[in-house]
Amino acid sequence: xxxxxxxxxxxxxxxxxxxxxxxxxxxxxxxxxxxxxxxxxxxxxxxxxxxxxxxxxxxxxxxxxxxxxxxxxxxxxxxxxxxxxxxxxxxxxxxxxxxxxxxxxxxxxxxxxxxxxxxxxxxxxxxxxxxxxxxxxxxxxxxxxxxxxxxxxxxxxxxxxxxxxxxxxxxxxxxxxxxxxxxxxxxxxxxxxxxxxxxxxxxxxxxxxxxxxxxxxxxxxxxxxxxxxxxxxxxxxxxxxxxxxxxxxxxxxxxxxxxxxxxxxxxxxxxxxxxxxxxxxxxxxxxxxxxxxxxxxxxxxxxxxxxxxxxxxxxxxxxxxxxxxxxxxxxxxxxxxxxxxxxxxxxxxxxxxxxxxxxxxxxxxxxxxxxxxxxxxxxxxxxxxxxxxxxxxxxxxxxxxxxxxxxxxxxxxxxxxxxxxxxxxxxxxxxxxxxxxxxxxxxxxxxxxxxxxxxxxxxxxxxxxxxxxxxxxxxxxxxxxxxxxxxxxxxxxxxxxxxxxxxxxxxxxxxxxxxxxxxxxxxxxxxxxxxxxxxxxxxxxxxxxxxxxxxxxxxxxxxxxxxxxxxxxxxxxxxxxxxxxxxxxxxxxxxxxxxxxxxxxxxxxxxxxxxxxxxxxxxxxxxxxxxxxxxxxxxxxxxxxxxxxxxxxxxxxxxxxxxxxxxxxxxxxxxxxxxxxxxxxxxxxxxxxxxxxxxxxxxxxxxxxxxxxxxxxxxxxxxxxxxxxxxxxxxxxxxxxxxxxxxxxxxxxxxxxxxxxxxxxxxxxxxxxxxxxxxxxxxxxxxxxxxxxxxxxxxxxxxxxxxxxxxxxxxxxxxxxxxxxxxxxxxxxxxxxxxxxxxxxxxxxxxxxxxxxxxxxxxxxxxxxxxxxxxxxxxxxxxxxxxxxxxxxxxxxxxxxxxxxxxxxxxxxxxxxxxxxxxxxxxxxxxxxxxxxxxxxxxxxxxxxxxxxxxxxxxxxxxxxxxxxxxxxxxxxxxxxxxxxxxxxxxxxxxxxxxxxxxxxxxxxxxxxxxxxxxxxxxxxxxxxxxxxxxxxxxxxxxxxxxxxxxxxxxxxxxxxxxxxxxxxxxxxxxxxxxxxxxxxxxxxxxxxxxxxxxxxxxxxxxxxxxxxxxxxxxxxxxxxxxxxxxxxxxxxxxxxxxxxxxxxxxxxxxxxxxxxxxxxxxxxxxxxxxxxxxxxxxxxxxxxxxxxxxxxxxxxxxxxxxxxxxxxxxxxxxxxxxxxxxxxxxxxxxxxxxxxxxxxxxxxxxxxxxxxxxxxxxxxxxxxxxxxxxxxxxxxxxxxxxxxxxxxxxxxxxxxxxxxxxxxxxxxxxxxxxxxxxxxxxxxxxxxxxxxxxxxxxxxxxxxxxxxxxxxxxxxxxxxxxxxxxxxxxxxxxxxxxxxxxxxxxxxxxxxxxxxxxxxxxxxxxxxxxxxxxxxxxxxxxxxxxxxxxxxxxxxxxxxxxxxxxxxxxxxxxxxxxxxxxxxxxxxxxxxxxxxxxxxxxxxxxxxxxxxxxxxxxxxxxxxxxxxxxxxxxxxxxxxxxxxxxxxxxxxxxxxxxxxxxxxxxxxxxxxxxxxxxxxxxxxxxxxxxxxxxxxxxxxxxxxxxxxxxxxxxxxxxxxxxxxxxxxxxxxxxxxxxxxxxxxxxxxxxxxxxxxxxxxxxxxxxxxxxxxxxxxxxxxxxxxxxxxxxxxxxxxxxxxxxxxxxxxxxxxxxxxxxxxxxxxxxxxxxxxxxxxxxxxxxxxxxxxxxxxxxxxxxxxxxxxxxxxxxxxxxxxxxxxxxxxxxxxxxxxxxxxxxxxxxxxxxxxxxxxxxxxxxxxxxxxxxxxxxxxxxxxxxxxxxxxxxxxxxxxxxxxxxxxxxxxxxxxxxxxxxxxxxxxxxxxxxxxxxxxxxxxxxxxxxxxxxxxxxxxxxxxxxxxxxxxxxxxxxxxxxxxxxxxxxxxxxxxxxxxxxxxxxxxxxxxxxxxxxxxxxxxxxxxxxxxxxxxxxxxxxxxxxxxxxxxxxxxxxxxxxxxxxxxxxxxxxx
Length: 2008
Hints:
By secondary structure, the chain is an alpha/beta fold. The chain contains 53 helices and 58 strands. Strands 38, 39, 42, 43, 44, 45, 46, 47, 48, 49, 50 and 51 form a twelve-stranded mixed β-sheet that branches. Strands 36-54-53-55-56-58-57-52 form an eight-stranded mixed β-sheet. A six-stranded parallel β-sheet has the order 18-17-19-20-34-21, sandwiched between helices. A hairpin with a 7-residue loop joins strand 3 (112-118) and strand 4. The longest helix has 25 residues, at 1669-1693. The termini are far apart.
């Protein structure tokens, strides 16, 4: 629209009026079309040239205002009274001058920078202040936020939010409006000495006359100059401050005339964007240069409504297209990440892909458009037509030469479909974007794109989204208030403040005006927008009547060559009365190629490459590339090398195959020269591997293979997986019954890659999981057997999975885990996959109905890229996702790892650090060669061209490095420096190590055909150069096994110490330290792990077409690495560390001009010695070199001579350059020790413009490098510059470099004597080389701060659910990211989850499906293998219990046997002759008083344990549950369902409460018990016919017998164990019918009923709530006898026999878990094995003389079996415990003591025996008791009455004197008494302690008096059986509740020692006195008043009283 001068329009009257109208619209709130212009014309500041200032200043600025009026004087606010107004001081009176503060320690807050302020009144001095870096521009002049935030460095005052306020505070005394751009002048930084000095000027674009300092070294093909401005200087490497015009305004070879910068519109001084600048080549590694049209460094006019401060945080690299624009930015980017192989049927769906060239008739034939003939040949491009609005006319003619895409149309449609959230509220003011606005925004977006950028549809989508949001800000807010169901968990709804990647952040859209943009305004507004980029975007709008007419006109111009410089043609049709129509035609060569290639699916792309190779289409490329120009022919040079080396290598050159000849490589005209390679003859002295192996000294002490170790973080993840499995099992859904499984089996599914398969097998074999699962013995397990557990997902997988499904159906007790590794690989729907491909197999097999429904199959998906499995229709619950945890939090190692993971984010970080060569970079010389060839061969696929060039580079680098080709051929300039570095490192590394360890170089070539060709080509060159023994070349084909040469295999076997003669490596991991080039092919990596010796990851050939997050991260994941944790983190090396290994001989990355200078003898590199002469040199591991060049090339030579390149790099800190020109001090030689490596501050070269042929390694590694200006004549360059100092000798140089080698990463590696380059390199991740386009995309960030690639579509099989989606946030956790994808992505029709929708269901998650995600190569395989192991252990643990395993105590072998050893039942007659064994043998009673019997001598332990502690210290063993075990409530197998109450015939919990009353003399009153009887158990009871009252519990007859029935009712008293008590006897009874009654306390009735709904409960009366076990047993026994009598009378009424009713009951402990029997074996003696409880009880019940016995029991189990003699008595008489068969009839007169808490069974058995009843223990049976730490009758807490909190109360406080004031205890009196007696034996019975010959006489009861006291039990009953006490002297007498049978005469039978103690216990004081009087105790015993005590109970708690006395 004409030229502008000084901001004034010089145009026609119409344009002036138009300008005024637009200016008015910008100032107004109502006039149309303000939003458009706020976007289009307020985003760029246009620098003017007349005074170097930008016109971004306000209207009142002093220069360049619209009217050129004089500046308005600025009135400063008067300073406050009393404050300081001295220049250079702040108002607080503190000095701010740099000269004063230079050495002061200043406190700089994080995020702030030191800035020098220029004061007009102090021109010679700078003032120091601190400014928030967000409000300052970066070095390109971009990204400054509007506004200010600063601190005063004098007085320390903080938080100045306005620069005006701040300028007042620091006394600037301005006459004009304060502007930060004018007064914040310089960065300040501290030098080596810590002094603050002036640094680089702050790059406010356009200020300070730097506008005129134009750079000259523009990229070739871009604007260059033959008429430089007079003050030409080297400008900043990444950007020149001025804008360059493009297209018609610029002479193709001339610099832009800075005075004639076209100016479209101005608003006051506000410039509009005018031009697209061809961006300069990029220099900083992670710093993309500005996009085509300039990014905005600042906001629009200061308080413009369309701009918000937060939107200006970052400028265009993260804006309009969010793709880092640079010289070759996005060289082959696809249109969109959505673009790729979408099913052709999805054309109408939102976000559908580009359609192929199949053209369907879209309109009537009269509107057809004819495609010109020879279009492709004439224009050398294939235009891409994007359908827009309206119907596209039919294309006729040569339709194959045009491509059609509906992608843009889909984008328009999706951004016009409002989300449903806005439709819920009826009519809404929220409207979608209009058609006109969409078209205008599209034009603006295209204008923003750089010349080499390709449009990304997602960015355009986000621009639409942003525009729409901003225009409806207030309306959207009101809809955001209610939380919608779709956004549960975290609100991912529409965010009004979200910054979108498609829109520049400096630009905010104002609310749309009331009047919409009209169609008539659209064409000229669009043309106005397009005018700012010259011819880059052309708009056909005026006088275009139809799309057909526009297309015809476009084709005509295209054929005429008038669109040569145009990348996009936008056709707009706005006919009156019709809908607006539009389409976009892409006519840029680069863009058309990228779009065309992206229209192929990956499969089709590979097919096209194969087609081009097989049909010879590539022949022309080969012919072109076959010559090295004047340096000869590549093949002839190789043949010559082969002849020369014939004496060294006996192999002669063989003829190349036809296919090899068809793809020979050569150079392009844009080759770069490099310095001569001094590493010559590097392989001549290399011995063969066999020679190496024979040398005894050829060992490397550094070699170790660590990849097999399981790391702590893997254990943590395995446990996390296990806890998720347990959570599924514990949930109420009962989807997984872990308790029913007794073992684990598994199958690991891997992609169809042979290496991945073998790698998984190897991991599995080494992990020990198979041994743990009990599958195989360690000795016989071979790797081959492990292959049964891994299956490749190809056609052979079907049979294996079918067999595991059948196994699972037949083995319901086995839990099968299907591990789907690399789960993102095949997610295709089986119905959409062809039968011959292996795709869709996962869906067919894992999603089959049999697998989904099998209750014992659990699926674990494992992947690094879970996004495709996280869609709206996913089968995996978000709760079943396990994400790999971060090992470090704030640099704290959470897991104490020996390694530190280095993945994609760390690679990105290395590009930003600036302190060292980034690990991820691109190769500029390679890219320039490729782009030249792509233009020359437009029909060839870029992958063919890139591969050809790359392999040529490698071949030439090999030839150069081998030394076989004469140096006269100058081979270096035909390859790139990066490739030379890689090859040099590969060849030299193995020579430095005595064992010849080396590095791996990975070449990623996705096409199998290209990879095979590359392998053949490289192998041939290697053979001809005689390097076959130096390194291996491996073709990594996923379909084939690894093929390694025999000599290299022998080498690996030697290193790994493998003896097996047939062993060959089958995985890449086994290639550790092998020097090799691995060519990894296949469409995508399939999970292959790479060894730690991987040093270079060359991804220069990977496709840039498929921009999905999964695709990109998968390729980058190849370089993921585990670095030793002791190494310093590579991305933050600090000043003293150097990631590079450098040497004087290292290759230097220089330009052609520098090469010439070096050839003239300036470079010390040209004369340095070959590497083989310095085997201990530091250059063992070269990385691409770092060169620090200066303006004169000979200075460069001197630089390199003084200091190796990587050292100079090392000492450059990432701060802005301090001087615009390098200082002379740069040449001072550095003599300090480089191991300390202090920063060299004087070495600060200035900015640079990169020369066109500059190789990447220089530009990419050193942000501040310089090269020669291109306009300098060659004669100047060849003039040697005088060297201030000669270079130091070579040896000292080597010494310097060695001290900064990368070995400094780890302490071990830093030794200067370490010669193994492999060992040094282990601590450093591999370097990654990327295509430039991908590098720019990956290193760019979007507005959320995340890498740009994270906002791409996650996977090609999914689509975005809506355009109205927020961006991913940097703060999101993995879980939140998962929820984001679950909300915003939907599977495409060919995704396996697309059919996972069920009507009416809220979720479709499969309950037994887990997802483990973690970054690539982090160790997921090891984690899930360990998970399998611990899951198996847990199942075994679930099948195991802790059993008390203690030997009988006090055992002494019997001298004689009474029964034969194999007797089945005891003989009552024999039993009566056997002596009763009073000794206590049960180990749980090892702390109680022993019972006296003649001949017994107890062993008193020196320090007996208190009873409370015994429970915790008892010995247990882990025993696996047998199939006859009793279970707690956690067990629920299918068989138990009915038993536990899940009977379909009965309603769960359906039971009735029945009262049952009976009277007992001892209780003194009627007792009412309650039975809870489930309906299913009512047949065990009899009820009255009237009213259904419970009458009795039915008992069988003695004569009844059934094989499936137990006659005895089983009573289990329990408390506190409703969950853990073992009441499920179904398996223990082997399914037999039995009556089981739980005896519970009243307050626990409800909880027991809840957990055991199908069990009969006997509820004890309320009075027994605080009672002990004695009360429960007492009631059970008395109730059973009462019931026996009721049953007899019932039988009598029925006419049956009364005596025949079964009188036995079973009293079982609630911890009895299993039962065993002893079989006598003649050979092995007694053998114990598990049997069912049914078998034991039936055996005992079948005893013919059972009725003779009062009590029977069984032995306690011990792992030591039967102690003593194997021929043990099968039956014995003695004390019985835990599991009793009680005859309630015979024992009618012996009751349990209802008051007892402890030792009640000892007491009961002693009294039963004394009553003359037979007691028998079946020693052939044993019971196992489980340790249950919860509940039980022994857990009584003694606490005080005043508080419920348990307090420590000693035994002495358990009693007190009657009527005394004492702390009362809330504990039953009997318990206090028993505890007191147990613990105070020495005080109470001093004569009895450790005196078993003088026991304490205890009458009618046994009480525990402690283990050191022996008790002699006697019964006072007549006819009682007692031991003989003749001649026995007792040391004490214990009378507890003495009844009438105890008489004075009875007591006079016993003799006592003098001083023996008497203890009389009674219920109250009166009965105590009565007892003393009645028994005439005062005759022989002396009592004192102080000897009367009571238990420490309150009166209402009925304390017990006792009296002590001494024998006279």
